[in-house]
Amino acid sequence: MKWINKVYKYHKEWISIVQNLGGGMYSEDIVSEAYLRLNKYNCEHKIINKGKISKGYMFFVLRSIFMVLINFIQILIL
């Protein structure tokens, strides 16, 4: 099984985390972007430690993408 599939097993949990951050209707997009970034930067060794998913690392990835989106929206409004 590819490592990104292990991360995807928690998809609903990732969506829930982004919704709690305030992602609303963008939650699915933010999580999808997280998968793309994890795959692009080959973060397997960062997110999977001793065969377990590091939910803390994923939280920081999701929060980072969410904050970029918020900053982009604020720039558009100003």
Quick recap:
Helix content is 74%, strand content 5%. With 78 residues, it is mainly alpha-helical.
What are the defining features of this structure?
single chain; 78 residues; mainly alpha; two-stranded antiparallel sheet; 5 helices; 2 strands; 74% helix; 5% strand
Judged by helices, strands and strand pairing, the structural class is mainly alpha
Ends distance: 46 Å
Strand % is 5-15%
Number of helices: 5
Oligomeric state of the chains present here:
single chain
Q: How large is the radius of gyration? A: 13 Å
Q: Biggest sheet, strands in spatial order?
A: 1-2
How many beta strands in the DSSP annotation?
2
Q: What is the percent of helical residues?
A: over 70%
Notes on the protein architecture:
The structure is a single chain. Helices cover 74% and strands 5% of the residues. It is mainly alpha-helical and 78 residues long. Strands 1-2 form a two-stranded antiparallel ribbon. A hairpin with a 2-residue loop joins strand 1 and strand 2. It is elongated, with a radius of gyration of 13 Å. The protein starts with a helix and ends with a helix. The model has no long low-confidence stretch (mean pLDDT 93).
Helix-strand blueprint:
Elements (H helix, E strand, L loop, with lengths): L2 H6 L2 H11 L5 H14 L3 H4 E2 L2 E2 L1 H23 L1
Antiparallel strand pairs: 1-2
